[in-house]
UniProtKB/TrEMBL annotation:
Gene3D superfamilies associated with the record: 1.50.10.10, Galactose-binding domain-like, Maltose phosphorylase, domain 3
Origin species: Cladophialophora psammophila CBS 110553
Catalytic activity reported: Hydrolysis of terminal non-reducing alpha-L-rhamnose residues in alpha-L-rhamnosides
Entry's Gene Ontology BP terms: carbohydrate metabolic process
GO molecular function annotations of the record: alpha-L-rhamnosidase activity
Ranges for domain Bacterial alpha-L-rhamnosidase N-terminal: 29-201
Domain of life: Eukaryota
InterPro entries hit by this protein: 6-hairpin_glycosidase_sf (IPR008928), 6hp_glycosidase-like_sf (IPR012341), Alpha_rhamnosid (IPR016007), Bac_rhamnosid6H (IPR035396), Bac_rhamnosid_C (IPR035398), Bac_rhamnosid_N (IPR013737), Rhamnosid_concanavalin (IPR008902)
Descriptive protein name: alpha-L-rhamnosidase
Keyword annotations of the record: Hydrolase
Domain Alpha-L-rhamnosidase concanavalin-like, first and last residues per copy: 210-315
Domain (Alpha-L-rhamnosidase six-hairpin glycosidase) ranges: 319-686
Amino acid sequence: MKDPILPNDDGSARPLTFRKRFFLPPDRKIKMARLYATSHGVYRASLNSKPVGDECMAPGWQSYKKRLHYQVHDIGRLLEPGAENTLLVDVGPGWFASALSWVCRRFVYGIELGVLAQLEVQFHETDELVVVCTDSSWSATSSAILRSEIYNGEVYDQQRAIEISGENVQLSQNMWFETRVSSTAVAPLTSPNGPPVRVTERLRPRSISKSASGKTIIDFGQNIAGRLCVKHLLKPAGNEVTFRHAEVMEDGELETRPLRTAEAKDTVVCAGTILSNWHPSFTFHGFRYVEVTGWSDEDSETPLTKGSLVAEVMHSDMRRTGWFSCSNEEVNQLHKNTVWSMRGNFLSIPTECPSRDERLGWTGDLNLFAPTATFLYDTGGMLGDWLQDLYADQMDEHKDWEQGMVPLYVPNCLMGAGPGDDGWHHMPNGVWGDAAVMIPFQLYMTTRDINILSRQYDSMTQYLEKGVRRGHDGLWDPYQWQFGDWLDPSAPPNSSGRSRTDGTFVADCFLIESTRRMAVIAKELHKPEDFTHFNAVYLQLLTAFRMKYVTPAGLLTPDTPTAHALAIAFDLLPFSETSGVSSREHVSAARISRALRFDDFSISTGFVGSAFLLPSLTKTHQDTLAYQMLLSRSLPSFLYPVRMGATTIWERWNSLKPDRHVNEARMTSFNHHALGAVTSWLHECVGGIKAAEPGWKAVLIEPCVNRMVSRAEVIYESVYGRVECRWALDDDTLSIDIAIPPNSHACIILPDERRRRSQGLKQNDHWVGSGRYHFKSEYKRADKPVEAILPPWGRSSF
């Protein structure tokens, strides 16, 4: 703007409204009309007072200095031929200029908000094309949204909105200023592959009550990411209604401590006229509970009732592809919680929480959750876009950045922040860095899209060649600090990296697995020299790992459930010279069983170990122990949050303590999808289906039947069609129903065959083509629970 609008008193950018008026010739029938738009900030457009599109928070969050998404809107039905048309575009700070991360750094990508748009109209009667572009002929003014930031929320002035709408013509004319073309560089424009953020569901309040101090509290019954929508509100001019959001209650009051500095507050300044269907436009919150100030059920005009507002669920509008259910309702709730946490955290990018002053695209979180995410939803487009940002930030040319290193979070919003980032920025790390290899590989296994591998190939090689700080043996430098088995329950609340499993060990396990997968990727891309190289490096690392961590007696150091689970999952242990059987069958399987029994089946694994614990037990034919861990009533346990009323996955297994007080840690979220990675075991082992070839061309059907659950069902909508497996135990009768889609085939391993394989009696695989299959047999296994190794007074259960 030629007359710049000053920032708000708190230093935040003031949202703007841009306007363009244009005339369309009369008596013409519109053939095609499109609006191409993007912004520095987040935008919403309206044409002739009607909303353009249903996207939220467009254009989303990218590494704005390297890539910028644009949207294409069909606007034919909104135009008025033969009349003056008015295009309005509101722009708020969004991720472009809001305070980001725990250091609350503003204006990360630029100091000016702006819009870039082109409107095109084509008529049937002529080849004439009407084009309206953003230029200095537009006008602008400060928005009716007085203040807006991702973490802190919005302030909306109803009277200002009335003024902008032009009901007072003289006032409206005086409030608009000329615009100018910004000197801020625009990154290459790209059309997004993933779906936009939309409102996908609306929840009515479950209850409206008074807190212990008499404040009005709305409980929506479900923790979500999204916003409120006020259906109708009428208050005298100047009155303010404030909505504060939080995920939990404590001692009868809204508990906001887990939000840290995020205010998560929206305010409406009323104008004395009815306000209908209002919602904040450029922010979102993670919440189940809302505290309302300035509006009550005693208001004479529009009293606050359950019909006055709804909670709007927001996330990237991905297609659902995977479902699971079983006879245990607590396990079903655990699965539902995982789905809700994915919805709450896949909002433009895959974040780790939607509530506090963070909401970053942590690479390690997604790396562990990717198998679950790609099963539950079609994430190919969204994660494909995010991976391009990962590569762009990985290869940043900033003087303080080490090219090839994978950022801890993408987009890397602390690039160049200096010492103010608290040291969490320039840090190569295992698991987090391995996302560069493992996530594209997981997407390929789901979609068989070879372009994902070829597009990300340089990112993968850059990480393995330059992004790992290695020791003399090729494994990780042992003096490089690692997150490791982050959030081990035994670690101090505010020192989550001090787990029982050495962080370097965890990083080494992932480095070896990434290198192995890289060899497979090189082979898939027909790069024989690279395959030879990475396969040789993999074998070298595997040898170094065994020399470093495996004793001559076959014992693994460190001797923890996480260490054994990773070694088993990634096939890192040596084979016996005499039996030809992996030593995990004799040593690690026994050690992990012993450790879990000594812990009375409570969770002793952190961020990483929890994702691999149950699969490693199943892999070593300890199905009963896996089920027992799943269903344990110890503290903490997989189902402890469910028993405490959780509706999403928590950041910690004990984010809420048994006395219903929030964990004292500074880092405690109640909507954190990473620990939901355990759900993958429900799909692949309890339900019993997983891809045997990339793209689900071949399917492995191998349900792990156990009497602790009497039935299970899993469904996956693959690119070939629906894959189904259902099983049910009725006394000693086992029934299994399987569906394989057209143009694919499956290897079916029934429980009797699994039992023979566990005894070393491997038989021929049973392959079938597409179709429906029914199996019925006797099931006489006892499935006796495994006993804990603790005296009665040492047990703690919930």
